[in-house]
Design goal:
The structure holds 2 protein chains of 2 kinds. Chain A is mainly alpha-helical. Chain A has one domain. Chain A is about 60% helix and about 10% strand. Chain A has 8 helices and 6 strands; from the N terminus they run E-E-E-E-H-H-H-E-E-H-H-H-H-H. In chain A, helix 1 crosses helix 3. Chain A starts with 8 loop residues before the first strand and ends with a helix. Chain B is an all-alpha fold. In chain B, about 90% of the residues lie in helices and about 0% in strands. In chain B, helix 2 crosses helix 3. Chain B is rod-shaped. The N and C termini of chain B lie far apart (about 170 Å). Classes of the chains: A mainly alpha, B mainly alpha.
Chain lengths: ~300, ~170
């Protein structure tokens, strides 16, 4: 942070005996797009976002192992009841979206993990110390203070990784549900048989690729923007003013995790439904119509 | 490529994050989702079974209640007929007893009046004999003579004839 007082600007009203002095806008050090490398293990770069991912994993492991150690009882204690509340709530919510209990059971571990992991990481990203505890290091050819911890999803590598998992899982579940050829038939249609279908198939293939980009950049953009917002607000008015924005970031963290998980659930459901979807889809609609209406 | 560098995309980090996510997925799946969903399923199944049992018991209770109601109705009808029969029987017995008692009382009364009559007659005879003796004795005293048995008999008859009818 530069300490150039000559560049300070602000609001100064002559008739009043106070003025609000704002630091120069150039003095605000917004976080860079790329995450910073804190250390190296061989050629592997240990970045601050990876450290946050490990911390989030540590929290999840601690909860999971503690839950396992206390053993699940028929009459739950407070901790077990809390875990049951989360798992059952998520399961019922995703079931209301997917509409089929069996399919929900198949997809649930993936979509619930996406939701829980992303939400926890997003929330951990606004903890005190994240972004503010620094060490001196090199980034983009400059020696500067690098934050040791940075929000996990403020790194495209992480959001891209989960987007890839989401999209690849979608393809795998689609193939498992329909078979290789029927699933491939969604994208590859002989142009001499159905020219429009062939064109739509190509569009769908492009859409699958686009999902990776939309997934990863939506999450990255929101979290990165939140990080920048908090830095700017904290720089301009360090006390009290950032509190509503912290609340906003909590909300954004929850919503983004939910959107990611929900879209994955919808894409999984669509992938596991036959192209045209009349036969299978209609049967399912009849079978689970009540549940959908209830949801 | 410049954009990828600006964004800091690194394939090693990408793979590391994929592995991280898969580890989290595995741990949560094994330690959290699988046992909790199994527990919830078991609980749901138990609740469903308990509700079915409760419904079955409720139906059974309804059937039992219906059966009890019918039995009570039958018992009521049977006991009503039984009481009616018993009442009639009791009335008949009462009548018979009364008849018997009346008959016995009549016979007792008859025998008693007969006995009284007999006693009265024997007493009268006794009185007459005594009166005879007294009269004769008094007459003998007055007349100072002895009466023969024929005289005694005649006088007695005369006296008796003179006695008021009620005394005879």
């Amino acid at each position: 942070m530069r300490n150039d007082t000559n560049n300070y600007h602000g609001i100064c009203i002559p008739n009043f005996k106070f003025s609000i002095i704002l630091p120069p806008m150039e003095a605000i050090e917004t976080p860079p797009l790329a995450s910073e490398t804190i250390a190296h293990i061989g050629s592997f770069e240990v970045r601050n976002t990876l450290i946050m991912a490990w911390l989030a994993m540590l929290v999840i492991f601690a909860v999971a192992f503690f839950a396992r150690r206390t053993r699940y009882k028929e009459v739950p204690g407070r901790f077990q009841a809390f875990l049951e509340l989360i798992v059952e709530g998520l399961f019922n919510f995703f079931q209301s979206v997917i509409g089929d209990k069996k399919q929900t059971r198949t997809f649930f571990p993936l979509i619930a993990t996406i939701f829980l992991f992303l939400m926890l990481a997003n929330w951990m990203g606004i903890l005190p110390g994240v972004g503010s505890i620094t060490i001196e290091g090199e980034h983009a050819g400059h020696i500067m203070n690098l934050p040791i911890f940075r929000s996990m999803n403020a790194d495209v590598n992480m959001t891209l990784a989960i987007a890839l998992i989401s999209v690849i899982s979608t393809q795998l579940f689609g193939i498992a549900a329909l078979g290789v050829l029927p699933y491939a038939g969604k994208f590859f249609v002989a142009p001499w048989r159905d020219p429009i279908g062939s064109f739509v198939g190509i569009l769908e293939l492009i859409a699958e690729m686009a999902k990776i980009i939309s997934f990863s950049f939506r999450l990255f953009g929101n979290i990165f923007a939140g990080e920048v917002l908090l830095v700017v607000i904290g720089f301009l008015m360090p006390y009290v003013a950032p509190i509503p924005f912290l609340g906003l970031e909590l909300f954004v963290g929850f919503i983004q995790a939910l959107v990611f998980a929900l879209l994955t659930a919808v894409f999984l459901k669509m992938a596991a439904t036959a192209h045209g979807g009349h036969e299978h889809g209609h049967e399912e609609e009849q079978e689970h119509g009540g549940e959908m209406v209830q949801a | 490529m410049e954009l990828l560098v600006k964004l800091g995309i690194n394939w090693q980090l990408l793979i590391a994050q994929i592995v991280n996510f898969l580890i989290v997925l595995g741990v949560l799946g094994y330690f959290l989702y699988k046992p909790i969903l199994a527990l919830l399923d078991a609980r749901t199944e138990r609740i469903r079974k308990a509700m079915e049992d409760a419904k079955h018991i409720e139906n059974q209770m309804k059937e039992m209640e219906q059966l009890r109601f019918e039995e009570m109705k039958k018992i009521d009808a049977e006991s009503g007929a039984y009481f009616e029969r018993m009442r009639k029987q009791a009335e008949t017995m009462q009548e018979e007893i009364l008849k018997g008692a009346k008959k016995e009382a009549d016979s007792i009364l008859q025998s008693a009046s007969r006995r009284i009559e007999d006693e009265r007659r024997s007493m009268m005879e006794e009185v007459l004999k005594t009166v005879n003796k007294v009269v004769i004795a008094m007459t003998e005293k007055l007349l100072e003579r002895e009466f023969t048995s024929a005289d005694q008999e005649r006088i007695a008859k005369q006296l008796v004839a003179e006695l008021p009818k009620t005394m005879r």
